[in-house]
């Protein structure tokens, strides 16, 4: 009994002294950042603001605030809404990316009443993410959701969830913001933790990290069916110099983030830098529903990315919503 209490006391002390928690003086924030429609979140820091996007199903919105805590009451503008039959509906997973100094918005949309016709579309913005966006076009004619843009060894790629018998991850060179080269599959859901409820790989996000001149590219993705508590994040590792278009170049591990502390089915993450550029942060969604969920009842959480000595990322599992976290470095 005594030993048990001592154990819990030690645990409590360890938790209390964790650098994750906000200490006196440092600004802090609490999760969730967005309570409803926090699905498929994306954040980028640019020029004094965090820009935030998530899935609303009906439109795409860009929100912004100067602090993570401030994203709970951000400025918001609708940047995409369409009555066009082919892309009116199921508007999912908007992301903005800077390509040669110009911002572009990638999103998934399709027809009313079906998710079988989901396609990736792109809009052109301005030199600030806050500028208006004009519709450019459809990027490819196949089922393609959750598109993201990544630069690997100075070449730009579109990475998305594609249908290759089962829901897999595909990659293609991005030739212009609206056109791609030859597509290849880089990951299929084959492992037990990728196939609960349904075989799914989706929601890719790319981050790179350099240790001792060894610059490795990592790709996180969501695995299993979102309507299960097994929905979780997997990791693909691409060694420096390896060809990102070859499936064998990507080494799979995981899950690297899964249900914990009352936050079920964590997934569809994104990475962003702290305002001072020194830290990496993770934004993702989770739900309090024990069965998981695929709908708007998913909230957005933010947590720091730690880097292990061998250069690999540690995302950790979702922390309890009662925790106050220290804000990203450089927030004013
Ligand atoms: C952006 O869109 C809004 C709303 O449609 C419009 O009022 C505004 O004039 C536009 N701004 C620019 C710079 O085009
Ligand atoms: C590492 O590689 C990524 C992707 O190619 C690149 O964006 C980044 O600048 C590189 N970082 C370093 C420190 O070389
Ligand atoms: C580079 O870093 C990766 C990821 O941490 C590691 O797996 C690999 O062994 C490293 N390569 C070298 C040459 O150090």
In a nutshell, what does this entry contain?
5% of the residues lie in helices and 48% in strands. The protein is built from 1 helix and 24 strands.
Mind explaining what this structure looks like?
The protein is mainly beta. It has one domain: Tachylectin-2, Chain A (5 Propeller), CATH 2.115.10. The chain is 5% helix and 48% strand. The protein has 1 helix and 24 strands. It has one helix spanning 2-16, and strands at 28-30, 42-46, 49-53, 60-65, 75-80, 89-99, 102-110, 119-124, 134-138, 144-152, 155-164, 166-176, 179-180, 184-187, 201-211, 214-223, 232-238, 250-257, 264-273, 280-287, 299-304, 306-307, 313-314, 324-326. The strands form 7 sheets. Strands 10, 11, 12, 13 and 14 form a 5-stranded antiparallel sheet that branches. A 4-stranded antiparallel sheet has the order 2-3-4-5, with no helix packed on it. A hairpin with a 2-residue loop joins strand 12 and strand 13 (179-180). The longest helix is centred in the first third of the chain and has 15 residues, at 2-16. Residues 1-19 have low confidence and may be disordered. The chain binds 2-acetamido-2-deoxy-beta-D-glucopyranose (NAG) (3 copies). Residues 1-17 form the signal peptide. One of its GO terms (molecular function) is hydrolase activity, hydrolyzing O-glycosyl compounds. Belongs to the glycosyl hydrolase 43 family. This is Glycoside hydrolase family 43 protein. It comes from Aulographum hederae CBS 113979.
């Amino acid at each position: 009994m005594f030993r048990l209490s001592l154990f819990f006391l030690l645990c409590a002390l360890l938790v209390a002294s964790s650098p994750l928690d906000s200490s006196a003086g440092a600004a802090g924030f609490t999760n969730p950042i967005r309570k409803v429609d926090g699905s498929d979140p994306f954040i980028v820091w640019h020029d004094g603001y965090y820009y935030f996007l998530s899935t609303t199903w009906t439109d795409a919105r860009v929100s912004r605030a100067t602090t993570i805590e401030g994203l709970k009451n951000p400025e918001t503008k609708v940047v995409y809404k369409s009555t066009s039959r082919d892309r009116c509906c199921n508007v999912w997973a908007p992301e903005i990316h800077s390509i040669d100094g110009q911002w572009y918005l990638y999103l998934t949309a399709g027809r009313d009443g079906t998710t079988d016709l989901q396609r990736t579309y792109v809009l052109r913005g301005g030199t600030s993410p806050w500028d208006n966006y004009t519709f450019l076009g459809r990027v490819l004619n196949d089922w393609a959701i959750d598109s993201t843009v990544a630069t690997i060894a100075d070449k730009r790629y579109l990475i998305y969830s594609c249908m290759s018998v089962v829901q897999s991850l595909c990659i293609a060179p991005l030739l212009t913001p609206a056109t791609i080269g030859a597509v290849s599959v880089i990951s299929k859901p084959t492992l037990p933790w990728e196939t609960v409820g349904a075989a799914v790989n989706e929601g890719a996000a790319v981050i790179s990290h350099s240790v001792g001149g060894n610059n490795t590219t990592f790709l996180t993705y969501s695995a299993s069916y979102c309507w299960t508590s097994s929905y979780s994040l997997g990791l693909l590792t691409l060694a420096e110099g390896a060809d990102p278009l070859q499936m064998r170049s990507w080494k799979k591990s995981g899950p690297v983030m899964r249900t914990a502390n009352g936050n079920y089915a964590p997934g569809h993450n994104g990475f962003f830098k702290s305002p001072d550029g020194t830290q990496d942060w993770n934004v993702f969604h989770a739900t309090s529903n024990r069965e998981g969920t695929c709908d708007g009842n998913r909230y957005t959480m933010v947590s720091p990315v730690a880097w292990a000595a061998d250069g690999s990322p540690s995302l950790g599992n979702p922390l309890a919503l009662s925790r106050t976290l220290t804000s990203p470095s450089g927030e004013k």
